[in-house]
Every structure is written in C-alpha cells, then in structure tokens.
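Problem statement: downstream parser choked on a complex file, so we are re-checking the raw output for the calcium ion run. The parser issue turned out to be on our end (a line-ending mismatch), but while we're here, posting the original submission so the record is complete.
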Amino acid sequence: MSKKIAVVEDEAELATLIEYNLSRAGFTVLLFPGGAQTMSGLEAAEPDLIILDVMLPGQDGFELCRQIRRTGKLARVPVVFLTARSEEVDRVLGLELGGDDYITKPFSPRELVARVKAHLRRADSDAEPVVTTLTLGPFRLDRGARRVWQADRELELTPTEFKLLEFFLTHTGTAWSREQLLRDVWGEQHFVTPRTVDVHIRRLREQIEEKPDEPDWLITVRGFGYRFETR
Ligand code: CA
C-alpha cells in the first residue's frame, strides 16, 4: 500500500506541484488548503507524514504542529515544515515545536521527495516491533511502546528526541561528535546540519535535566560534542 502524505499548503500552484512530484514518486497525496477544518481533516486522513506550510490563513503551521503533537493519532507522525524565510527556520528550530525537519522555499521537488522518503524509511525502522525495556539509572525506556520515563515521570519526546535518548542510554560514557550523532541517530537524512543536533540536545535537556544549563546527564564535550553520564 502506498504511503499517505498530507500536504497543508494554501498556495494552490505550489500544492499542485508538490502533489505531482509526490504522486509520481508513488505516494498517495492529500491536499489541505489550511483553515479551520485542517485538524479534523488530518485526523481523518491518518497520514504517514505531514508536510506543513508555515504561513497559512487562520492557524499557522507552528500552531498546527503544536496541535498535531497533542493529538494522539497524529502525535508521532513525522512533520516537515515548509518555510519561506530564514527567520521562520529559526522559529522552527528555536521554538522546538516538535517538527522533524524543515525545507526552505524555493526548494527542488527532487529534494522534497528525497526527504520525504528518508523520513518514512526512518519511521518504518522505528516501527519495527522490539519488546525490550531498557533501564538505566532513573530512566526506563520501552522500545515497543516507544515510551520513556524518568523516575515516575513520563517524558514527552518527539520521534527524533526519543531516538537520541535511546542512543545515549545505550552508549553511555563515550563522547560523540555531532557528525557521529548525525550518522548514528539521524541516519540516512543527509540534510540535517550539526546545528540540528544542538537544537535537539537542548530540547532533550529541558526534559531530563533539573537545570538544563548545568546538565547532570547530557554533558557538553567542549569543541567536540556530547557525552551521556551515568551516576
Ligand atoms: Ca502559505
């Protein structure tokens, strides 16, 4: 069965171009022009991936992404933002809205298709049933359920943050460069930059550290990268 991609984009011409290229790559494409019906439409569609324009009439892409991450059915669906300006990229990364990637306009259809494929491959490999539970210090990670707790508190992590924490919990004590983390955690997505790593580390720290600026677990290795410490 072909994968379903929801595209939320109010510019009809651009939406059609995206639809054309994704359809040609074998995907089923559902177009949403934005507006009040978008969330209910997305819930009904149950897409495998959502492409989300930032500038939309009514609720913008950022607000939609927040809602997507709070909606059980959609919470773990990869979200790729389409942004027109570099300031928006800063917001995507800076506000940590739970998006998985962003593409700046104008973009090449080939690049878009490649990124969509990379995210879907990753979502597939993430979905492979693994029944092991990993416990380390106060952390308990259930790979099958894709849930993680710190002491009694369940952490709310995006798919990328989950994967990053899973990596650190299984590779403690070693210093990892940003490039190594990109290769081992992000895998086939060649589009992410070392800065992406820093953004996700910061977000992860906000979840697991008592004082994110003075981390106890996720330590900065100056001039190199990061190390996860067990106490
Ligand atoms: Ca727009």
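For whoever reads this later: The mean pLDDT is 87.
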